[in-house]
Amino acid sequence: MAVYSWASVALGFKASNLTNRGIICEGPYAFVRHPAYMAKNAAWWIGALPAFYTAFGGGLRAGLYALACTAGWSFIYYMRAITEERHLLRANNGYAEYMRAVRWRFIPGIA
């Protein structure tokens, strides 16, 4: 929640105000390009851990369901990030430079 809150504060009114767009390069956006998506995904995976755990205690169906749902949401947010980046590359000349400066999409050093 802390990373998501930090990302929301750094994004400010740009998240909902279509006339006040621009590239955010401060806060968590200085480290990864999609910190809010990363934080949401981390929360979902952590929240699904109890269901994964019960899969080993006899509740395989619940564990597989939790795995499928969590993986599905992760895929949706991955595709959302890809689509958003394509749009920003077309709409904002500075986004390509930002992508070169901030190499990581979700997790520094990994992805």
Give a structural overview.
It is a single chain. 63% of the residues lie in helices and 0% in strands. The chain has 111 residues and is mostly helical. The chain has one domain (34-111). It is elongated.
Question: In percent, how much strand structure appears in the residues?
Answer: under 5%
**Termini, distance in Å?**
20 Å
Give the topology string: H per helix, E per strand: HHHH
Task: Tally the helices.
Answer: 4
Helix share, percent: 55-70%
Provide the number of structural domains.
1
Unreliable spans = none
The whole-angstrom Rg is: 16 Å
Could you tell me the number of beta strands? 0
Shape category: elongated
Structural class: mainly alpha
Question: Mean pLDDT score, rounded?
Answer: 83
Largest β sheet strand count, sense and barrel closure: none
What keyword list fits this structure?
mainly alpha, single chain, about 110 residues, elongated
Q: Quick recap of the structure?
A:
This protein has 111 residues and is mainly α.
Write the layout of secondary structure elements.
Elements (H helix, E strand, L loop, with lengths): L1 H10 L23 H21 L4 H32 L3 H7 L10
